[in-house]
Structure formats: C-alpha cells, structure tokens
Request: fold
Amino acid sequence: MNNIFGENTKKLGFGLMRLPRLDPAREDSIDVETMKEMVDYFIGQGFTYFDTAWMYCGFKSENAAKEALVDRYPRDAYTLADKLHCGFFNDAAAMEDIFQQQLKKTGVSYFDYYLLHDLGEDHYKKYTKLGSFDWLVKKKEAGLAKHIGFSYHDGADLLDRILTEHPEVEFVQLQINYLDWESEAIQSRRCYEVCVKHDKPVIVMEPVKGGTLANVPETVAAIYKNYAPNASVPSWAIRFAASQPNVKMVLSGMGNMDMMRDNTGYMKDFVPLNDEEIELIQRATDIINHGIAIPCTACSYCVDGCPMNIPIPKYFSLYNAEKQEYKGKGFTPQGEYYTRLAENFGKASACIKCGKCEQICPQHLPIREHLEAVAAQFE
Ligand code: SF4
Ligand code: SF4
Reply:
C-alpha cells in the first residue's frame, strides 16, 4: 500500500484550526506562547505533522505556524500541510497569489503536503474550471509542494469519479469518526473504501467530530470508563480513526496542553482497537445516534458570510447539549448561554434565510431549518 507519510511516522497530526485563544470570543486571538509550548511538547514526543489552511483561526493560523513552529525549528524537524480553498479566488492569477501569500505567511520555501480544500460537487467544478489540478501538479514539479492531495466532503460516488479522473493526486483527507462511519450523509466508510480501491492513503479530519465525541452521554462515558478507567473519552474516537489500516495520519485540533498530553500519550506507541473495543464503540454509536439533534462539526465555515452575524455552530452546540440532557434534570445551563450569546450576536430568529451558510456547509446541513428549531427552543 502506498504510504507517502513514511512507515515510521507517528499517526497523530497537530491540526492548527482550533488553537488556544487569548480572547475566548475571538478565533484570531491565538495564544502563540501557549501554542509554542504545545509545539515543543508535540515535537519532543516524536510527532512531526502540522496542518494549517488559509482561513483557519480567522486567517491567522498560518502566521501562528510561522511564529510557533517554522521560525523555531529546522525544516527537517517537521512536515507542514497547507490548503487552497476556492471560496477565496475566482481566477488563476488570484489562486497563485494566495499560494505565494501562504509561503510568506508560513515562512516555508515549500509545503510537504498541499491540498485543494473542501472538494465536493460544486467545488470540484470550480477547481476544474480554473485548472487547479494542473496548477497543483506544476507546484509539485517545481518542488513547492512535495505531495499533493485534496480534502473531501461529499459522497463516495463522486470521490470515485474524481480519483479516476485525477490519478496524479497522492492522498485524500476525509472526515472519519465512529459516528459518521455508517452515516448516509457523510459516508465515511464508503469514501474510505474508495481511497483503498484507488490506493490513496487517507488523512483523517474531524476524528472527534468537532468535540462531539469528547462530550458523549453519561451512559457512553461509563461504558468506556468501565473497560479502560484511565483512557480519556476522546482517545476512543482518535484510536478508532487511526485503526483503519489505510489511515496514515489523524488530525486533532488540540486547544490546550491537557489535550496535547492526552493525545500524544496514547498515540506515541499507537495500539489499534481490539475486537472487544470495536464492539464497545458500536454500542456507543447506537446510543449517541439517538441523542444528537444537529450533526454540526463546528468548522465555522458558515460564520463569516452570515449577514446577520449569527454564531451558527455555537447555537447548534447548545441545542445538541440541550437535547442530550437526560429528562428530569430540571435546570440546564444552555438557555443562559444562549441569552448571553444573543446579546452580542444575531439571534437564531434573526436569520433572513439567504442560504449563504448552506452553500458552504461541508456537512450539507439544513441550517435555516435547524435555526428555527434553535429559536423555538431558546427564545
Ligand atoms: S441563511 Fe440565515 S444563518 Fe444562513 S447566512 Fe443567511 S442569515 Fe445567516
Ligand atoms: S453548520 Fe456546517 S458550516 Fe457551520 S459550523 Fe456547522 S458544520 Fe460547519
């Protein structure tokens, strides 16, 4: 099986999308000093893979990668992945301009891995029209991108078509977690199998589903604790993704040192799930699937373009938490959080139904409809 990541490379990547913040309300207020400590720890434990993108952390993730990583370590101490999203350009010249800015922002002279970001039916058309695949090959030939791939959010049939039409692509980044594995909408397993068929190694994004699988119902947490008292709840999700043989890297957005210590602890000498553990995860999946109302991954892609400044993922997270509370608990804190958020941002009921958010949502969620439910719940 093709492995461009190296046989001895550890399977955990540091996703630079949810970094520690100085101001919890502002995603671009990256706490670079804490990030430096995390980078040092990560590299100290023998890990090497870092993943950023143009718009992560309010367009500041690449700058932070330079400050915390690139300026402080020799180039062969790490590998850096970056991505190009077609939502930010409409012609080839602007595409090239973004790439050049990315080199400057990160401070590297080449990327180890470079991806077309967020492919699906619509974006595939746009990348094709603008010649992005040929352009990507030229970047590889010029030594500016050592390995080329794309991240993907759509069905398995289209993925099969893209990989057939573009054998030059070397790897695919997929959303894989145990909740989405058999999901009709996300089709994680089927997409993974398409990659196996085309002999393309897989990088996993959203292994913990934007934190959802770190905050599982109490019954599920008890199942896990009973089996392995010292294992954290998210470790089950990350190990599930890493246990798929063709998965060569699992990205985790680590927001603080505790997460970093926990993740690197069990991924340093990674042991795949055994049969009994797989069975427990299946039980957990069944239980959770009964409780999650809105499967939002909190990627925040929808937020910037919303004319009413609605904090969509935050509202969805509150709504899910509310729906997962066990009945009869009495007071729950979600309503309070909602009221505070609504003082500074648009209310769910302020949605004017323009649909911009749904065009960019990689999970294809009916956001407008869900916001109506949020409004009914909290307003
Ligand atoms: S449909 Fe509503 S939530 Fe979505 S971008 Fe428009 S106003 Fe914002
Ligand atoms: S609604 Fe969609 S785009 Fe917005 S944060 Fe959730 S998954 Fe991302």
Q: What stands out?
A: The beta strands are 12-15, 49-51, 79-84, 111-119, 145-152, 171-175, 202-205, 247-253. Residues 12-288 form a domain with the TIM Barrel fold (CATH 3.20.20.100).
